[in-house]
Amino acid sequence: MLKNLDPALNADVLYALRSMGHGDTLVIADGNFPADSTARQTTLGRLLRMDNVSAPRAMQAILSVFPLDTPLQPSVGRMEVIGEPDTIPAIQKEIQAEIDAAEGQSAPMYGIERFAFYEKAKQAYCVIATGELRFYGCFILTNGVIPPKA
């Protein structure tokens, strides 16, 4: 056990998060996402798992250590509902609340069409599969920076 780290963050996920740099992206995937086949095409080349947690719980844990690139751009993409790109399902509202809490301000997500999401996911640093069962629980996060202390 380690102090001050969310217990949902396992060693493999922590290794990947620590290895990423500014501008790298990661995918948080629900249970229906083709996570393994997509992960094989990412920089890391293998799937990471947080099977025992929902997507909002995974997001909360990841954002406890992961800086988003929000000062420069919208940093979290969400998979759009097919044929209804402006619809925000409950899972995505919960994720938005986790993002806003972690950032201490509103940091709106941007939509990505389903098939475009699959293509962007292949270019990510890694894919993290969660135990989320609800549809549209898939997100792409862009890594930011941690500024030096004054």
What does this structure look like?
The chain is α/β, with parallel strands linked by helices and 150 residues long. The protein has a domain at 42-142: RbsD-like domain (RbsD-like fold). Helices cover 31% and strands 16% of the residues. The chain has five helices and six strands, in the order αβαβαβαβαββ. The protein has a six-stranded mixed sheet. Strand 3, helix 4 (90-103) and strand 4 (110-112) form a beta-alpha-beta unit. The longest helix has 14 residues, at 90-103. It is globular, with a radius of gyration of 14 Å. The model has no long low-confidence stretch (mean pLDDT 96). It catalyses: alpha-L-fucose = beta-L-fucose; beta-D-ribopyranose = beta-D-ribofuranose. This is Fucose-binding protein. InterPro entries: RbsD-like_sf, RbsD/FucU_mutarotase, RbsD_FucU.
Task: Using brief descriptors, characterize the structure shown.
RbsD_FucU; 150 residues; RbsD-like fold; L-fucose mutarotase activity; 16% strand; alpha/beta; 6-stranded mixed β-sheet; RbsD/FucU_mutarotase; Fucose-binding protein; single chain
